[in-house]
Write the structure tokens for this entry.
Amino acid sequence: MINERIQTQFRQSAELKMQAAEQLAQPISQAVELMFLALSNGNKILACGNGGSAADCQHFAAELVGRFERERLPLPALALTTDTSILTAVGNDYSFRDVFSKQVQAFGQSGDVLLALSTSGNSANVVAAIEAALERDMRIVALTGKGGGVIAELLSETDVHICVPHDRTARIQEVHALTIHCLCDGIDVALFGEEGDE
Ligand SMILES: O=C(CO)[C@@H](O)[C@H](O)[C@H](O)[C@H](O)COP(=O)(O)O
Ligand SMILES: [Zn+2]
């Protein structure tokens, strides 16, 4: 019984990935281009999201600051999900809605990229972070699902929206994790070319 459930989940995840590959290859490659350009200009990437998406932010930042699959110089990426003093002070003194936007206001500069993750596209603190980033003339790469929610409404054609075509949070997150690895791989390829791959 449980084995069947597990196999169904693997199958659904794999099927969604195959389906999303076609739809998302284009926006993911646009996101690589946008991020590579920002990094080449000396700008940085800030990342925010809640729960599993907070973990994704940290995963992404670790692969840029440390490394992905190739040896290279550290690249500037910062997860806005990790400083518990900032998160609790801002959450306590202002509101949980402000925990990321205050950090965007503190660290974000024109030309930086905000990687914003929300499976619903509706988390208020991620929406507020996007609004703060747009005010600072930053570019947005949004990873969403469920049609993109409020976030879809905020983005313009200078931003990149990677919206997973599914309604279930877990399945969407699984595609977000793969997308993050595609972003890291794309940035490495932009730096070094495709030689020695696959
Ligand atoms: O990982 C999971 C569920 O798989 C949860 O921790 C999930 O990330 C949290 O419920 C988040 O608060 C959901 O927020 P969002 O993706 O809608 O922005
Ligand atoms: Zn999860």
Remarks:
- The beta strands are 45-48, 77-79, 113-117, 139-145, 160-164.
- The pocket of D-altro-hept-2-ulose 7-phosphate (ligand 1) is lined by residues 50-53, 118-120, 123, 126, 169-170, 173 (CB under 6 Å).
